[in-house]
Amino acid sequence: MPDTLTFPPRMGSSVGQPLSRRDGFQKVTGTATFAADNHPAGMLHAVVATATIARGRVTHLDVAAARAHPGVVEVLTPANRPPLARDPDEKLLPFGFRIEVLQDDRVRYAGQPIALVVAETLEAATEGAALLAPRYAAEPARVTMETGAPYAPQAVGIGGPARVAHGDVEAGLAAAAQRITAEIDTPPQYHNAMEPHALVAEWQGDRLTLDMPNQALVMARGTIAGFFGVPPENVLLRSPFLGGGFGSKAIVNGPQILGILAARMLGRPVKLALTRAQMFGPVGHRGQTRQTLRMGMDAEGRLTALHHHAVAATSSFDDFIEPAAAASRPLYESPAILTTHSAVRMDIGTPGPMRAPGEASGSAALEVALDVAAEACGMDPLAFRLANYAETEPITGKPFSSKALRECYAEGAKRFGWAGRPLAPRQMRDAGGLLTGWGMGTAVFHCPMFAADARATIRADGSALVETAGADMGQGAWTALAQIAAEALGIDADRVEFRSGSSDLPDGGVAGGSGHTATAGLALHSAGEDAVAQLAALALADPESPLFGADNAGVFGRGGRLYRRDDESRSMAYADILARAGVAQLQGRGRGVRNPKAAEGHALMSHGAVFAEVKVDPDLGQMRVTRLVGAFAAGRIINPKLARSQLLGGMIWGISFALHEEARHDPRSGRLMNADLAGYHVPVQADVPALDDMVALMIHEDDAVVNPLGVKGVGEIGITGTVGAIANAIWHATGYRPSRFPVHIADVLPALR
Amino acid sequence: MNRFDYHRPATLAEALVLGATPGAAYLAAGTNLLDLMKLGVARPGVLVDVTRLPGLDRIERLPDGATRIGAMVRNSDLARDDGILRDYPALAEAILAGASAQLRNAATVGGNLMQKTRCRYFQDMASACNRRSPGAGCDAVGGVDEGMAILGWSDACIATHPSDFCVPLAALDAVVEIAGPAGAREVPVTAFHHLPGLTPAQDTALAPGELVTAIRLPPAAAGFRQHARYMKLRERTSYAFALVSVAAMLRWEDGTIREARLALGGVAARPWRATDAEALLAGAALGRDAFEAAAHAALADARPANGGEAKIELARRLIVRTLMLAAAGTPARIPALPASPFAATEESLTHA
Description:
Order of helices and strands of chain B: EHEHEEEHHHHHHHEEHEEEEEHHH
Shape of chain B: globular
Number of helices of chain B: 13
Mean pLDDT of chain A: 95
CATH architecture of the largest domain in chain A: 2-Layer Sandwich
Distance between the termini of chain B: 51 Å
Low-confidence stretches of chain B: none
CATH topology of the largest domain in chain A: Aldehyde Oxidoreductase, domain 4
Strand order of the largest sheet of chain A: 3-5-1-15-12-13-14
CATH superfamily of the largest domain in chain A: Aldehyde oxidase/xanthine dehydrogenase, molybdopterin binding domain
Number of domains of chain A: 3
Number of strands of chain A: 30
CATH class of the largest domain in chain A: Alpha Beta
Strand content of chain A: 15-25%
Distance between the termini of chain A: 64 Å
Largest sheet of chain A: 7 strands, mixed
Largest interface: A-B, 39 and 43 residues
CATH architecture of the domain at 226-328 in chain B: 2-Layer Sandwich
Helix content of chain A: 10-25%
CATH class of the domain at 226-328 in chain B: Alpha Beta
Oligomer: heterodimer
Strand content of chain B: 15-25%
Shape of chain A: globular
Low-confidence stretches of chain A: 1-11
Structural class of chain A: alpha+beta
CATH superfamily of the domain at 226-328 in chain B: CO dehydrogenase flavoprotein, C-terminal domain
């Protein structure tokens, strides 16, 4: 695999073009088939019954009543649940989670599956589940930081270090001219993709066909096959469309296994779709955190020490520790940096990756603390961040593969109109008298790559078929990945057929960590290059070809023709090359994986700067984000239209984090009391600035190190920086410094006299 | 219960016969009832669909100058009716501040009156709720919902009525027209919703089998049109229930308030008419001092049910704000963010 850019952007390339979504027409006309739209003949409906206590045992289920209900076919409980080939309490690293599949009568959290009712109709299954009328031996619920059991985690996130120390933080604090401490709480949040988890499972012998939205098809196929003791090839997982994933659909969960199990047990296809309320429990969430930041600054406002400690909630039976403090490692220069985590076990479903896991919560707290520090130093927040700009990665000293953050600050500030912002809070009002505040935050996200494979076939007519089991969850992967493939193939994007979203295709890796475009894209690019190289070999070996005599590096493809690089008047159409060679089609293969040698010497990060304007009613405390400008440097942008949507979407999730999203447990019962979209708020149109005032600038960045495509990823960075920027704008408007998210009216009210 | 009988009667008389069946419920758009049935909170054995009954979808001007709004008039149609916009602008503003465009297109006038509290504990079948199961207790007391009542609550129930529409209705002295097995009658909207007392399950004045057929706005209600506002405070700019809402209406001459109307939403199990405050305003000099005094009077008996002191303070401030806005004048057009503090302010404040 090459480790530098093998092609310059050029005329005729589809990469870099703002193409519209390939699946847009299907989506807006309702012809896109989502998992729950499948209705194979003889299909049964399964409904999960869930626990209403948070800890204890199920002592009785009225299975007889459920079975007696007309239409009910079967009731699965721990008493009759067929065996699985794998222990659901076994921990499978790195992405495996312990799951709840009726292995015993224990209740570990409210919302845990305690039975599965299968019936001829959804209504009968629903009523059957209600008729179970469970009785419990309940134990006190532990759902708060105060009642949970604290411990020192071995790792945070997916195998990340819990503690990273650089320099002497206490000495740095002691020597500081200014010291600040900031404490920030973030709440439990639930992914709540528009499309709930759903599946239609059909067994034929020991072969399973599964329609189920999923962000990592081939990995999920292996996990599922393991639970059922069949080879992975026996499982066909189809996921052509996802109505959002946000991390929840990257990890196999208990209800999925139960639905598949019911289909095998009963010998009929089974559909299982979670209700909205059931999305709050067994399918992951962002764990709550309590974060403390301590900073010291010298007389010039330069950090002398930075300590970020995060306490994160996890379940009583598994570990996913929101790696919030990790956000303080790569961003600001300081001679002493300490990031530490502790964890608290609670009676909750196991948290998992959700929309920038770690970075979102950690950046929210870090950027608020930065603002507190800037205030302590009497400095403008942007000037303060520039004074602490890291030219190399602070802890490791490694150079960044690329870092156009300075340009992000400059372009973002210019577009926003940051200059002239008064330092003190409560200085600005709009024409209508609303308190107006400006705040900012730095966005940062790492650039992971997974591993992916792809095939590219050049057909006799000069068109191409490219294939990888990728996932389009609304981000536009189908379109951007096809553009990359078209680029490598030298064929116009509209002549490239793209097949994806099915586990029988080459492994497309994980659509997560903002690494899908880079990983699957690189696989497709390599496959395309491989196919073109094979084509070139045919042409160069043909004495009648106008390309004869050019060596392999001396030709390139464009618009379905192969050209001599030194003489573009000499070219030949792909179809003609194949026809003259008597080859029906040829197939290239490629793999997308990070070259560790190229990357190990560098820090690989995307960056950005987000500027927010918030208006607050001076008496009533109601808040609204009225302007949001983000400037992001995320390597090469494959499709600016889709990338802009991704970045704006991330920023809107930032509004959501700052002002809206919060799952509320009743600490007495441990139940979530707002498990629906009326109670669990996400922003509506009126909470998002008008389109003219909602800006995502893409700052040019060339990066030959991060991967040969130069792609860093834009999926998650938008939420980072934004949360802090909004909180800091609230402070600037009101003088109230948020210490918890989301910020409520009652929080700012005391500051409004 | 997932098995029920469904009827779609063609006449009111037929509907009333069906509605008298034990366990029957009238179904209009179902924007609340169907959710409650899915949750198991409501389990009617008979649904009587009243959406096709003739004559209930009209807005009429009566000979005495009153306006009658049929119970099946859709919220969106009502809020866009020229006569409503002209004579009762705060009513239109309140409707447009509620729910979402899709819900307003479906939801009816009668259904709005009949909707249940959105108290999380009422909707959670695993929680104790006296409103749902008399005598069961109230888990909302000491719970995590800060949006509970500050007025008129009891130890048995601290829930609030969620309607926006009913708040200006209460201020305007609207009357609810009711048909039932024992004939037609009418009830002032202010007496239609019951405070919980010891019997929160009996939440309205309707007897079994009775059906709301119309709302009537008396002729005098139009007299406030030039100074009538509705304001709604909430955690999300749209599509959220009110923390507190206020309908305020004024008539004055020469700087002296002749008559004021004031009602609050989101604070009690009924839309809360603040008659003491109105009495204080009548005859007072128009201005902030009078409005502050009125706010104080309106909340004199307020006590937070769940430690929500902030809610009382917000209600006080919102009363003053809404009276100030009413004094400034009804906007010529309903602003783009109806009832919101973020509504554009450059609109003309001269209402026809």
